[in-house]
Amino acid sequence: MRLNKIILHGFKSFADKTEFSFEDSITGIVGPNGCGKSNVVDAVKWVLGEQSKKSLRSSQMADVIFSGSSKRKASGMAEVVMIFGDVDGEGSELQITRRLYRDGDSAYLMNGKTCRLKDIREQFMDTGVGVSAYSIIEQGQIGQLLSASKKERRMIFEEAAGISKFKAHKKEAQRKLEKTEERMLRVADIYNEVQKQLRSVKLQAGKARNYVEYKERLDKLRLQYYLAEYKRLEDRKTQTEKQLAGVKESCSEVFRELSRLETLQAELQNSLREKEHTISSKDGEIIAVKGRIEQTSQRADFLMNRLDELSKRKTDASKRISELDNQKAMLEAEVYRCENELSDVESQAQSKQDQLSELQELLNEAELDVSSINSRIEDQKTQALDAVRKTTQIKNEIQNSQNRAENLMIEKERLSKSVDSQQTQLESSQQDKKQKQKELEDVKSRIEELSGKLEANKDMIEELNAEISEKVNQAASEKQEKSALEREYRLLNELEKSNEGVGKSVSRLLDEVEKSPENYGYICGLASKIFESDVKHSVAVEAALGEMVNWLIVEDSKSFVKDWKPLADKSGRLGAIEKEQLPASPSGSSEHPRLSEFVRCSDEFSGLKDRLFSSFILAEDIDKALQLRNELKEDEQAVTLAGEIAGQGGSVKFGRGSGSLGIISRKSRMNELNKKIEEVEGRIAEIEAGIDENNSRHKELSETASQIGSEIEQANSDRYKAQSSLQLVDQAIENIQRDLPESQRELEGIDEKIREAEKSKEENEAQLQEIEQQTSSSDSLLEDLRSQSEEKQQYKNELNSQVTNLRINIGQDTVKRNALKQELSGLKGRIENVKLNIKSARSDIEGGDEQIESTTQSVLNAESDLSELYSRKENLADEASELRKNASELFEKLSETEKDLKEKKESNAEGENRVHKLDLDLNETKIKIEDLIQKAADELEIDITTQQQDDEQFDESEVNWDEIKQEISDLKTKIFRLGNVNVDAIDQQEELEKREAFLSEQIDDLTESKNKLSELINRINVESREKFQDTFEKVRQNFKEIFRKLFGGGKADVHLDDEDEPDILECGIEIIAQPPGKGAKAISLLSGGEKTMTAIALLFAIFKTKPSPFCFLDEVDAALDEANNERFNMIVQEFQKDSQFIIVTHAKRTMSIVDKLFGVTMQQQGVSKRITVKFDSEDTDAA
C-alpha cells in the first residue's frame, strides 16, 4: 500500500480544491509560519477519524470548515480525500473521504460509498496508519512520547506489534461476555419465576378442568331449554303475523286513494311554487335593468368630463415645446466654447510629454550603473560571510574533535565498569531463577487443593437449593389457601358493611343513628349484631329469633315509637325490644342442651339472651325434634341445627324465612375465617422462617464458595505472576548474555575512535589558517566599490528630481483636460434630453387628438344604450302582471284538494290504530325471541336459530323440565362453590411448561456461549502476549542500533516495567538513554535536542520493526542543530526504500534531501495556496 494523493476542499485555510500528489520518494512541505502547511497534516488526521478538537487545533469541530476572509465567503462544507494505491499488492486503489457540513451533518465514504468510522479504522488496523499510530509524527508528539506515562507509551508498541486488532476483538468479546453474563442472570431469574408460577398454575388448572366439565353440562341443558322456548315464541309470532296481514289488506284501498290525493296536492303545490319563482325572477330582472340604466347614465357624465380634460392637456403641451427650443440654443453655445479650450490644453501636454521621455532615458542608464556596482558589493559581502561561516564551522569541528576524544576516554572507563556489572547481574539472575521455579510449583499445588474444596461446596449448595425449593412450594400452597380465605372474608365483610339482609326501613334507621348518635342514645343496636354463636349453631339461633333477628334492642320503646313511626309508615315495618321489660324465661332444667348455652353476647345483654333463647331446646335433626315435643314444657320449642322448629300442639317450621335471616351465620363464618387465616399465617411464618434459615445457610455456603473462588483466582494470579517473573528472569539472563559480548566489542573499538578524533582536529586547524589569509585581500576591494556607488547614486537623484517636477506639470494639464471633457460630455447630454422632451410633447399633442375623437364616440354609444334599457324595463313589468293572475287560480284549486285529503286521512288513522296494536304484540314476541337469542349467545356463545334446524327430532313432550331446571340450579351451585376460576390456567400451564423448557435451553446456550467467549479471550491474550513480546525485543534491538547511529555512540534501552503490573499486556514501558560521554540519565534530565533525537531513535526503531506505508513528519527537526539534522536526514534516507516520507519543515538541510517540494503560501489573506517544485526540472506549477 502507498499514498497516491490528498485532496483538500474547504478544509481550514484551503478554501479551494487543492491536491497534493505523492511519489515513492521523500516529499517536503515548506512555507512561512501561519501559511497553513500544518493544516495538511491536520487533514490527514481528520480524514482518518480524529475526533479530538484539541488535536486538530480547534475549539469545535465546525472550525475545520473554511471560515472565510476579507475577500472570500465562508465554505458550507469541508472535505478531505485520501487515495491509496496498490492496496492488496495487485494495483487496486482505495479512496477514503470525510465530509463535514456547517449544519453539523457529516459522512465517511470508502471508495465513494457511505461507511462507518469503525470500517475505516478496521481497514488500517495493524498497518501503522491511524490517528494514534506512528504514521503521523508531530513536533509536540516527540515530547509527549517521552513525557507520557509508562502505560501510555504502550499504544505505539501495540500498533507495531499488530495486536490492535486483537485488542479490539478482545474488547468486543469482553463486552459480549458481560452482556451474556447479565442475560444469564436475567434468564435465571425469569426461569425461577416461571417455576413458581407453574407450581401455582397447576393447582388452578385442576380446578379449571372441573369448572369446564360443569360448564359443558350446564350449557347443554340450557340449550335444550332455550330451544323449546324459542319454538313456542316462533309459533306465537306466526299467528300474530297472519292477523296483521288481514288488517293491512283492508287498509290498502284507503291508503291508495290517500296517496292519489297527496300526489295531486303535491303537483298543485309545485305548479304554484314555479309560478311564484317565475314572478320573483321577473322582479329581479326589472331591478337589474334599473341598475344598468343608472350605470350607463354615470358613464356618459364621466366621458363628457374626460373631453374637457383632453383639450386642456393639448394646450399645455404646445407651450412646453416653445420653452424647450430656447433652452437648446443656449446649450449649443456652451459646447462650442468648451471645444476650443480643450484643443489648447492638449497641444501643451504633448510638448511636455516629449521632454519627459528624454529625461527618463538618462535616469534608466544611471540606475543600471548603480545596480551593477551594488551587485559587485553584495558578491564581496557574500564571500566574506562564507569565509566567516567556514571559519566558525572549522573551529566548532576542532572543539568537537577534542570533546569527542575526552568523551571516548570517559566512555572507555564506563564500559569497563559496565562489563563487570553485567557479569555480576548474570550470576544473581541465575540464582533468582531457581527461587522463582520453586514458588511456581508451590502455587500449582495450592490451586489443586482449593479446587477440591470448591467442588464439595457446590454439592452442598445444590442440596440446599432443592430443600429451599420444596419449602417455597409449601409456602405458595399455604398462601394460596390464605388468599382464598381472605377473598371469602372480604366478600362477607362487604355484605356486612352494606347491611345485606337488613330491611330497607331498618337500614335507613341505622344510617340516621350513625349520623347523629347523640340524638338516639336509647338504641342499643340490632339483635342480629348483638348476639353471636359459632357457625354450627348460627342457623338455629337465627331460626329461634325469627322475625326479631331484624329488630332493634332499645332502652325506651316510647321514644323509639315517637321518633321512628313516620319512617315505618313510609318505608316498611320496624320492630324493637326493650332490654329490661321482656317476659320471664321458662324455669326448670332439662337433660337436653338449651340454645342459650351456645349464644354469646356482652354482659349487659346476658339477661336478654336467657329470656330469648332459654325456651329453645337444641335437637340434632327434625326427627329428634319431633320426638322431643311431648317432653317440652309450656312455651318451650325444639330447634335443629338446620333451623327447623317443632313446638307443642303439632306446630312445625321448615326452611329459611324472608327478611334478615343469615346475618348471624355470616357473622359466625367471618369469625371462623379470621381464626383460620391466623392459623394459616402461623404456618406460613414457620415455613418462611425455615426458608430464611436455609437462605442464610445458602448465603454462608455461597460466600465460602466465593471466598474459595477468590483464593483460586488469587492463586492463579500468583501463578501467572510467578510465570511472568520467571519469564522476565529468563529474559534478563538472555539480555545480559547478548549485551555482554557487545559491550566487550565496543570497549575494544574505543582506542581507534580516539586516534580518529585527534587526526580530524589537526586537519581542521590547517584548513582554518588558509581561510583567514583569503579573507584579508577582499576587504580593500569592497571599499573601492562603495565609493563608486555613492557618486552614481548622487547623479541618479538629480535626474529623479527633474522627472518628478515635469510629471507634476503633466498631471495638472491632464486634470484640466479631463475636466473640460467631462463638462463637454454633460452639455451634450443635456442637449439630447431637451430634444427628447420636445419629441415627447409633440407625441402628447398627437395622442390627445386621437383620445378626443374616441371619447366623443363613447358618449354617443352611452346615450343609445340608455334608450334600449328604458324599453326593456316596460316589457318586463307587463309579463310579471300576467304571471300573478295565473298563480291566484292555482291556489283556489289547491284548497279544494286539501279538504278531500283531510277526510281520507281520518279514515286511514282508524286502520293504522288496529295495525299498531297488532304490531306491538308482534314486536313484543320478537323482542322476547331476540332476548332469548341474545341470552343464548351471551351464555352459550351459539346461535339458537341455526341450532333449531339441527334438533328437529327433539320431542318436547318427553322432557321433564322441572328436573332440567333443578339440575341447572345444582350445576350453578357447584360452579359457585368453585369460587374464582382461572379458565386460562390450563393453557397457562401448557405455555409455562413450554417456556420453562425454552428457558432451560436458553440457559444451556448462554452457558456454552460464555465458555466460548472466555476461551476466545484467553486465546487472544496468549497470541497477543507472543506477538507483543516478539515485537518488543525487535524494537529494543533496533532502538539500540539507531540510537548509536544518531548519537555516534552511547547506549539506550527499553524494558517492561512489571513492578505494579506483572501482565505483559498491561505493564508499562521504561526508556533509558545514555548519550556518548555521559552517564545514564532519566529522560526528563536530557537536553531538548537529546530528547528529540532519543524519541526519533525510538520511533524509527518501531518503524523499522513494522514500517507503515507512509509517514508524516511535522517539524520534527525543529529542535535539532545542523549536525543532528544531518544524522536525522541520513536515517530518513535510509528508510525511504520501505515507506513514503512527507516532511513539513523549515530546515534547509532537510529540504535538500527531498525529491519533491510543495510550497504553501497565502497570496490572499486567510487562503492557502500550493506551489510544487521538482528538483529534476525547473518547472513551477502554481495551484
UniProtKB/TrEMBL annotation:
Q: Name one GO molecular function term.
A: DNA binding
Gene3D superfamilies from the xrefs?
1.10.287.1490, 1.20.1060.20, 3.30.70.1620, Designed four-helix bundle protein, P-loop containing nucleotide triphosphate hydrolases
Instruction: Please give the PANTHER family that the UniProt record associates with this protein.
Output: STRUCTURAL MAINTENANCE OF CHROMOSOMES PROTEIN 3 (PTHR43977)
- Source species, please? Sedimentisphaera salicampi
Cross-referenced SMART domains, in alphabetical order?
A: SMC_hinge
What the protein does comes down to: Required for chromosome condensation and partitioning.
- Name-wise, this protein is Chromosome partition protein Smc
Location within or outside the cell: Cytoplasm
From the UniProt record, report the name of the gene that encodes this protein.
Answer: smc
Oligomer status and interactors: Homodimer.
GO BP terms in the entry:
chromosome condensation; chromosome segregation; DNA replication; sister chromatid cohesion
- Which controlled-vocabulary keywords does the entry list? ATP-binding, Coiled coil, Cytoplasm, DNA-binding, Nucleotide-binding
Q: What is known of its domains?
A: Contains large globular domains required for ATP hydrolysis at each terminus and a third globular domain forming a flexible hinge near the middle of the molecule. These domains are separated by coiled-coil structures.
- Where's the SMC hinge domain? 521-629
Q: Where is this region: Disordered?
A: 415-443, 757-798
Its family? Belongs to the SMC family.
- Look up the coiled coil feature and give its residue ranges: 163-197, 663-697, 989-1026
- Which positions in this protein are listed as binding ATP? 32-39
Q: Name one GO cellular component term.
A: chromosome
**InterPro entries named in the record:** P-loop_NTPase (IPR027417), RecF/RecN/SMC_N (IPR003395), SMC (IPR024704), SMC_hinge (IPR010935), SMC_hinge_sf (IPR036277), SMC_prok (IPR011890)
| Compositionally biased intervals (Basic and acidic residues) | 430-443, 783-795
